[in-house]
Amino acid sequence: MGTFNRLHLIRQVDLFTLRLFLSAIEEQQIGRAAMRENIAASTATKRIQVLEDIAGIQLLERGPKGVVASPAGAVLARYVRTIFDSLEDMRSEIASFTEGVRGDLSIASARTILVPFLARELGAFSREYPLVDLAVHDVENAEIARQVAHGEADIGVFAAAYELDLDGVDVTPYRRDRLVAVVPQDHLLSERASVTFQDLLPENLIAADSLLGAFRAAARRLKQEFEPGYHVRGADVAISLVQAGLGVTVQPECLLTPDVLARVTMLELAEPWAVRKIHIATAHGRTPGPATRAFLHQLLDRPADDACPSRG
After folding, report:
1. What is the distance between the terminal CA atoms of the chain, rounded to a whole angstrom?
2. Is pTM, for the whole model, over 0.70?
3. Are 242 and 181 in contact, with CB atoms under 8 Å apart?
4. Distance CA 226, CA 207 (A)
């Protein structure tokens, strides 16, 4: 391999090769990256080898199961993503002079936020900006900030949670919701107006992924350990198990529609962490494009008391 030369990189490496390099990292195989970019695997391998020759250093570490970015490759990938982000922003801004706001907008959020809050916002935004192509990713709460930081999503909307990694993102407060206890209608606790986490611990507390960390932290404050008998991914499954009499759960109040409340009993959760703070994440140091700015403006321009729009 030669020595890295900025002019050689500018003159000899095209944008397609850089995109192919990113695809190889994301797919973890050059063959799959070639299929994704619709070229022959041998051509993809040759292009990446030439890129490494120009860089003067190994960019991908090869193994029997595929490829991963080398330390130098990870640095190059970070800057290449910035280049493609800037190109997309440039395209959107130029198009906005004649066609209005347009472009691609990727949003990452969890179902417990998408259902009560973002679905309505996304519908209104789509009607206002029909030239913007929306991509909505329903992911685990803990993954949202990571996707934004790595350029996999333009905006993330997440609930503040115990030990959440927010490195690489800027955070803006969005809404507040509250967590409530959900018990079967004939449960001993159903006659009470409120309960504490300590009240729920002996009652086979069903944990959804998004709240497992909060449950364990609350148990540690009580000098106990928490391991759920039922550990489920979504709120709908947890509530179904409660309705079947298999335990109790804690869920965001906005998910409890009148239909759900006809089958279970909702109680106030008398805990300081029962206030669910919902935030917006954008990538630190990256200038938002026109579509991202427009959606941010819509999310933040709302009535202060509009706490649970899905019930409106």
Report:
1. 63
2. no
3. no
4. 10
